[in-house]
Amino acid sequence: MSKPKVCVLRTAGTNCDEETAFAFSKAGALAEPVHINKLIEQKKHLADYQILAIPGGFTYGDDIAAGKILANELRYKLIDQIKIFIQEGKLIIGICNGFQVLVKSGLLPGNSDLRQEASLIINDSAKFEDRWVYLKSTVKCIWTKNLSEIIYLPVAHGEGKFIAKDELVLQRLKDNGQIVFQYCDEKGGLTGYPENPNGSEDNIAGICDESGRILGLMPHPERHIEVSQHPRRWGVAKNKNEGDGLQLFKNGVEYIRKNF
Amino acid sequence: MIWHIELRDKPGVFDAVGSGIEKDIRDLGISSVEKVRFAQVYILEGDISQEKVRLISEQLLVDKVAQEYSLKPLTYNPQEYHTIEVAYNLGVMDPVEESALKGIRDLRIDGIKSIRTAKKYILKGRLTDTQLKTISEKLLYNKLIQHIAEPHVRRRTSHAVDIGYQFNLITVDLLEASDGKLKKISKDGQLFLNLAEMRSIKDYFKKLKRNPTDCELETIAQTWSEHCGHKTFKGLIDYREKISDGKPKRKKINNLLKSTIMRVTKELKKPWCVSVFKDNSGVIRFNDKYNVCFKVETHNHPSALEPFGGANTGIGGVIRDSLGTGLGAKPILNTDVFCFGPPDYPFNRLPAGTLHPKRIMKGVVSGVRDYGNKMGIPTVNGAILFHERFVGNPLVYCGTVGIMPKEKSFKQAQKGDLVVLVGGRTGRDGIHGATFSSGELTHESEKISSGAVQIGNPIQEKKMVDTILQVRDKNLYSAITDCGGGGLSSAVGEMGQDLGVKVDLEKVPLKYQGLSYTEIWISESQERMILSVAKENIVQLREVFHQENVEAAVIGEFTNTKRLQLYYRDNLVCDLDMQFLHRGSPKIEKKAVFIQPKHKEPKFSCPVDLTSYLLKLLSHYDICSKEWVIRQYDHEVQGGSVLKPLVGIANDGPSDASVVKPILDSKKGIIISCGINFRFGFIDPYWMAAGCIDEALRQIIAVGGSLKEVALLDNFCWGNPDKPDRLGTLVRAAYGCYDMAKALGAPFISGKDSLNNEYTVKNKSMAIPGTLLISAIAVIEDTHKTISMYTKRTGDLIYVVGLTFDELGGSHYYDILGFIGNNAPKVFPQKAKSTFEALSKASSLGLIKAMHDCSEGGIGVCAAEMAFSGGLGMEIFLGEAPFNSKSWKRNDFILFSESNSRFIVEVEKKKQKAFEKTLKGIPLGLIGCVNANKEFKVYGLDGKICLKARIDALKEAWQKPLRW
Q1: Model-level pTM?
Q2: Does CATH place domain B2-154 in 3.40.50.1580?
């Protein structure tokens, strides 16, 4: 088949669209930044793509709460297109601000009536932080196959503390294996700040929906697709030939190749 | 109807904001606050039902997972709690309003007139009124833009600020004005024009046989202001100099800028300099497809009064400089350099009307963080220095690098093109910003110039960048420039200076009604750009902006009249000859005197154990870790970050320069560095300038770059240039710039001066130390070959490269001992050049494992930083360091002298020979090696240990001071 097509959704304040598109093209896809107005006005159609990527940024300034306004825009203006997209078994990934959007729109952890069951709130440190973190992953999700046991990616956010609505939701996430990324130390231990940079419950850094096709995560895989981006490439990363994050994009592209 | 919606965290959710404030209150020395809770307040105004308000709250404003809300102000038992609610002043832009209104429209709810935010702090504990006042004023609000709100009053107060405007042409009587009257007109109108200038204006209008309109006078004041016109640098100077070991000299200078800074560039004739000193930023070649541009600006006075807003709009402004260069460059990185008063400065010594340095610093950092991060531009390089002379007047330098296809590097507005204003709307923001920055600050400044203070809207600017780059690539306009200081007045005035231009001011989209024609013309509302667009392109151009919700208004036309003609509803309100406006200002001769000061030369013997001195130096505010600041900036967005500002085994060591790959699929990159050290200027500004250039270039070399393609930017922040002593040091520094940059082969491509950095209280003027910032940008072929500063492996060799002299003058070692001294480090440019070139060769051959620029704190601090950043120990032998003196042999001087052109280098043993061969002829000493025992040991000239510490203890000393 031809290259899988990725819609990299952008709007006012999106700012990781170009590097996200670059990561997808490096993984073999045809990635195109698309302004949300074009989808709303039907000048472009979500149906023409197989992957929807909601990249990082500060959509609408993160005013009110991070990702909230774009989340509502999806719910009120694009939801029919998105529902069809999901029903057709296509893929969605939300990174950083994109994760906040997916959670606040109710697309993650996901339920039939799009109730918001979790949130990403202000970091315990009460400030934006850019730092590299270790992540433990599980393979429940199609996006996280073939990753090393522990991967290394940067986070850069002020509102990334994951909380579930209640114990039941958290238990359901655990039981279903929807917690796909957890902040950890170099050896995989679930430790506190700064390894867990924001105070997330259960060190949660990323979750997927029940199907494993919709993924949201706070860390930035698109900022570690090459070894040159690693902060200590002179030592630990010397013998690698690609960054830890690239595999996620490859997984998405590979899945579409196989299934569409 | 006014609705009050109050949100707070649900019980059990950690209140991060409240708990941060709790800590800040304790830092103020107030211990009686047990707990702080934070609540967010929205004030909605409009004709809507309670049901709709609940819908808005639940669907948009409240995070139901984490928060609860109430439509009534939540009350707390006044016996136990104090509540403080902070709201924006009327007329100050609330940055949340625009997006909140969009969110409400998306819910398909109409009828909202305005939405404002307020912050409510609930303090548990017993506090006196004075304590409450202290907390409010020192932490929670800034009265220039905010006030303590009384919710019951607000219920009756509308926030709509629309008031009508009746056109009334105002003229100013100059023709009959005496000299005294002229001075008064300038002062009362905040024009900051001197008498000679006022007289020239009077003469011009005398010939026209009419008086100027207020708008004409304002336009001339803006154009001729120090901020826009740089009249000191371009004027005449009668300079006299007496340095301590030389004969007195006298020189007449016609245009200091042309005879020093620009002269370097002219004489070096580098083929890769594309556009210098002409455009909004300097442009150099990047590769065969792209050029890069770089500009650094200052925003000192606004940051003194409202640190968040000042720094916020400072960074916003310099980003527009890049967007306004050529036909528009995409901003790819930001830099920021600050000078503040000491963060532990006693409150009781603060001059009236000033904010505490710690508050200023926190506000400035937040302002840069907010704008840079939201724009998605990585903030990759900077420096922060402290001195008590910055208490009343901090320095905030902001820089932006942009990239553009090489064929987009030049612009030319055409006759008949339309004047198109894009971006944000125009309000009363920042009126008199350009002239305000051209005067000194006084304790009255906060009252009279509050219009010059504003808050930016980074998302508005982001939308503008996104769309402008699209229309640029469709070739839809012929010229572009940004609206910065002076607003439309300088943007349109400058773009039309060769042609002539006609503007209809009523066509400018306004935030609210009620602005006079002059206010529209000089408003410095942020996030606006001017394009010059051929008539046949206008429809297509507006479509692109419209698609992404950016306004683009046609406000006039470029003519061929060579006149600036402004109309308001068909009334001619300004008609000026461009020649007079841009060339008519009288050349003023200023006096400049530099007499080299004589400081006390300290006499003390070398301490036997230097451990405590190194610890003190590492904790010096200038030297200590700036991690608290750096982490708050996104330094990796756009994905091109190769060498990050924090490096090391724990990613927390101080990198010398940053390396960024602007084109993701190419290995080629740019290196950004800076040199700044006002302390050397206390002794001789000439050597300060030389040292700054050496330092900026040294950092380029330290990360693996070369001198092949390095360009410099100068930013002079100085005191009042009408005072001969201030101007004398400025001239002396400019000569230092010429000599060093010329000898080292690095041209200047852009620069900016910010003069009048003085603070007046009760007629006593306090000037900042004359502070030169040199920023450098270099192109590097293979970013994968860059070098970091931290030690890599046990057993590797440690070299000092470059000679150490008895140059303790202005050093941090002397500073912690309370001295300045007189021997400022000099630069020997030919030797520096050969050192730089040899090291550059060694890095390209892969002979270097780590390299660090030896600067503040000398060899001692430099080696310690390498060791603790690498998590490894180090042993060094001072006797092996190359030093130049017969008369002095002291451990402390070798260890802490801040001589220029030096590096510390880590080399693998097996590459020892190759390294030494490559550096043949360069002074170098194999001073020690890296070891595994996590100890930092220094052996003195007598072979005995003179310093010994665990690397953890050194790191702790370095990290502690600014670990907020």
Answers
A1: 0.95
A2: no
